[in-house]
Amino acid sequence: MYEKLHESAVFLRQAFAGQVPQTALVLGSGLGPLADELEQAVAVPFGDVPHFCQSTAPDHAGRLVCGQLAGKTVLCMQGRLHGYEGYTPAQVAYPIVVFRALGMRQVILTNAAGGINEQFAVGDFMVVDDHINFTGKSPLTGPNDARIGPRFNDMCHVYPKALRQVADDAARACGISLQHGVYVGVNGPQYETPAEIRMFRTMGGDAVGMSTVFESIAAAHCGLPVLAISMITNLAAGITGQALSDEEVKEMAQKRGEVFRMLMKEIVKRL
Fold this sequence. Notes:
Elements: H1 2-15, E1 23-27, E2 39-45, E3 63-69, E4 72-78, H2 89-101, E5 106-115, E6 125-133, H3 161-174, E7 178-185, H4 194-203, E8 207-209, H5 213-222, E9 226-235, H6 246-255, H7 257-270
Parallel strand pairs: 1-4, 1-5, 5-9, 6-7, 7-8
Antiparallel strand pairs: 2-3, 3-4, 5-8, 6-9
């Protein structure tokens, strides 16, 4: 793993032509257009990067885009990898560890999620205070390389309070109201059943989605601070009585996209 990380990082440093990003942004379902707003942008398809996997999820462009956003050099992962695509947790999380090898100071993970908390409304943004990994899997399974992180790493401080405060301050400056809560990560690709949502609510979950937890675990392992923000694109199964669909998710992501991009720019400016 360590040697593969080095190969990926060397390739990307050369590809970015001297730009040195300090913040990585992983853009979830329907949120990819932010990468198109980068100035002096250099785009690299996942398939060109040694040891990266190809994204097959709909509306995930599968590119790394490095450039300027809000006066800062950032690296956007335009689309991501998921367990439901058939990738292992380690493959899903591999880009995160590469970001650490590139010298990133923090990573911002974004996702589209279903709202479990009945006080949430469609279109809300939720800062992830903690997560529940309900996939039953971990990207750290298998041999451990101490050069990357410890065999048994702490998970109490995955989402540092200081980064969450940056998000709150940025939202206030933009006139945006933020929710806070616990994200439940599931494998998918099927949506959850109403019974599962009732269970997640009882467990303390506020939103549910099919990404983020593997990336957060890997980030904690290699010492990369995480800020995670969910866009509540639909209410979870059983709340409205309506069937869930991908079209609903994409429609809300597009509708709230401009506000999301404004928030992300303000956050980046403050980092």
